[in-house]
Amino acid sequence: NRVLSKNSRESVSIIGLVFEKGKTKNGNIMLTLEDPTGRIKVLINQNNPEVTQMAQDICEDEAIGIKGVCGDKIIFANQVIFPDILNTELKKAEDEVYAAFISDLQVGSAKCLIDDLKKFVKWLNLELGDAHQKEIARKVKYLFLVGDLIDGVGIYPKQDGDLAVRDVVQQYQLCADIFSGLRKDIKMIACPGNHDSLRLAEPQPAFNEYAKPIADLPNITLVSNPALVNIHSSENFPGFNVLLYHGVSFHYYIDNIDSLRTTWNGEHVDYIMRYLLQKRHLAPTHGSALYIPDDKEDPMVIDKIPDIFVSGHMHKACVGNYNGIINICCGCWQSRTTLQEKYNIDPDRGRVMLFNLKTRQVKM
């Protein structure tokens, strides 16, 4: 509201939420920004190609900064500023330890690759592989399960026809049986996904009583979705902060953000993760994911900067790096479904992402 009292052509800087985004008949981008004191129009002229290109990827409801000059109840923007993340400290542990990341196990699905999961656990237990592979497995000290441990029941119409196990407790029991014999020096961290037996609205709490067989595993920590987890800290090392988010909001941004929609070919989920890091929010647009509002804080805000950002959901395995943050999207443990065939998605099956805490390298 203070902008309205400024003189014409006076320079201003504001921060606000994007209430609305559109185009004028001349092809300029017109935003409506709001804060608790009111709303104001912001015009981004197409004759400023650098700012226009940035503005193409603005999504509704995100927080942005604008620098420009005042007009009559309008700001003519010269610069758009996102919360973004600057270069972060490249932490390295002194000892060579691996963290393993998997997601979308879909246990209970008739297409779950349960034998491959059992083989993976055998490898971690040093029962499979050549000498080099066993040496890597011996150094794995953390295992992250990034959502969709089970396929669930009633997740989509006629799902019962795709299930080998039609009871969620039995599905979790089957999943727990797979990991019950895992080496006890490996710490497991598990967050839920949209197929797990919890509310769909985010933030999803940690697993409930249906997943008691999982909770009873002696070396597992159950966390929410999203969650920020610190691993491998000591007196001399702050540890790595790992941001877990299963990734339900990803589809919205592929469909609605120009730079993602025009380049999306089913690969490079890390591009979506980079976009959300720039916004400092896991689901900035209202409706991009179902959520539970909180009047004290927004749990989807990326407040503390992570060292690693890991997701799943898309059934595609890839790795990226954004300003020192390692972006990891896990593959899946389920063969191709009818729905994936419909959308021409070829899932990456049985791929494990391994992060070396000493070298910061990621192996697939």
Features:
16 strands; 364 residues; 26% strand; alpha/beta; 9 helices; 6-stranded mixed β-sheet; 5-stranded mixed beta barrel
Summarize the structure in words.
The chain is α/β, with parallel strands linked by helices and 364 residues long. 19% of the residues lie in helices and 26% in strands. It is built from 9 helices and 16 strands. The chain has helices at 49-56, 114-124, 131-138, 168-179, 212-215, 250-256, 258-261, 269-279, 338-342, and strands spanning 11-23, 29-35, 38-44, 63-70, 74-81, 98-102, 140-146, 187-191, 220-222, 227-231, 240-244, 308-311, 318-322, 325-329, 353-356, 362-363. The strands form 3 sheets. A 6-stranded mixed β-sheet has the order 9-8-7-6-15-16. A 5-stranded mixed barrel has the order 1-2-3-5-4. β13 (318-322) and β14 (325-329) form a beta hairpin. The protein starts with 10 loop residues before the first strand and ends with a strand. The relative contact order is 0.15.
Please report which band the strand proportion falls in: under 5%, 5-15%, 15-25%, 25-35%, 35-45% or over 45%: 25-35%
N- to C-terminal separation? Answer: 52 Å
- What is the overall number of helices? 9
Secondary structure: helix percent: 10-25%
Q: Segments where pLDDT lies below 50 for 5+ residues?
A: none
How does the helix and strand content classify structurally? Answer: alpha/beta
Report the radius of gyration as a whole number of Å. Answer: 23 Å
The largest beta-sheet arranges its strands as 9-8-7-6-15-16
**Oligomerization state:** single chain
